[in-house]
Amino acid sequence: MTAAESAGSVIAVARAPDHRFSKPLAPEIALVAGLGVAGDAHAGTLVQHRSRVAKDPTQPNLRQVHLLHSELIEELQAAGFPVSPGTLGENVTTRGLALLDLPAGARLRLGDEAVVEVTGLRNPCRQIEAYAAGLMAAVLDRAPDGALIRKAGIMAIVRAGGTVRPGDRIAVELPAPPHRPLGPV
């Protein structure tokens, strides 16, 4: 891994004890190594997302923490969508960090103690369209070569636990090259 550099900040944190689309904001969340967000329905060593459990409940949980950049929220608000931090089901809303450009295996230090390892891109599900018509198309885009671009944030696993609060700094530690681009998880 390369040396860590400060790259952004946490602007909101959220968790929900049950499976729902949006998550209520909290003053802080506790990340637990190997599990995810304490008190969140998606915490666990094995996959917790209902669609993935239905396919194979023995899969490792590569989606313990969902991070979303506030710049996307602002873009969606400007397009008329009723979204705010937590609305799209993220646990950590960030600012000033190009989440979608991170490589697989990048580590993010959230605050003083917590460390998450990026596993991949969030693949938006049908619930996003049920929340607001046209929202699915708004969080997807096409590259010049026609490749699908998923803009709905990234997923990570917890490597070191700790408390995360709005205002915490985020430092990025990149893995050794060659870097693998993020794919959906």
Short description, anyone?
The strands form three sheets. A seven-stranded mixed beta barrel has the order 1-6-5-11-8-7-13. Strand 9 and strand 10 form a beta hairpin. It has four helices and 13 strands.
Report the top-level CATH class.
Answer: Mainly Beta
- Could you tell me how far the N terminus lies from the C terminus, measured between alpha carbons in angstroms? 22 Å
CATH-level-4 superfamily name: PK beta-barrel domain-like
Low-confidence stretches: none
Shape from CA axes? globular
Largest sheet: 7 strands, mixed, barrel
- Predict the CATH topology: M1 Pyruvate Kinase, Domain 3
**E-strand count:** 13
Radius of gyration, in Å, reads 15 Å
**How much helix is in the residues?**
10-25%
List the SSEs and their pairings.
Layout (H helix, E strand, L loop, with lengths): L4 E10 L10 E2 L2 E4 L3 E2 L12 H6 L9 E5 H9 L13 E4 L11 E4 L3 E8 L5 H5 L3 H4 L1 E3 L5 E3 L3 E7 L1 E3 L4 E5 L12
Parallel strand pairs: 5-6
Antiparallel strand pairs: 1-2, 1-6, 1-13, 3-4, 3-12, 5-11, 7-8, 7-13, 8-11, 9-10
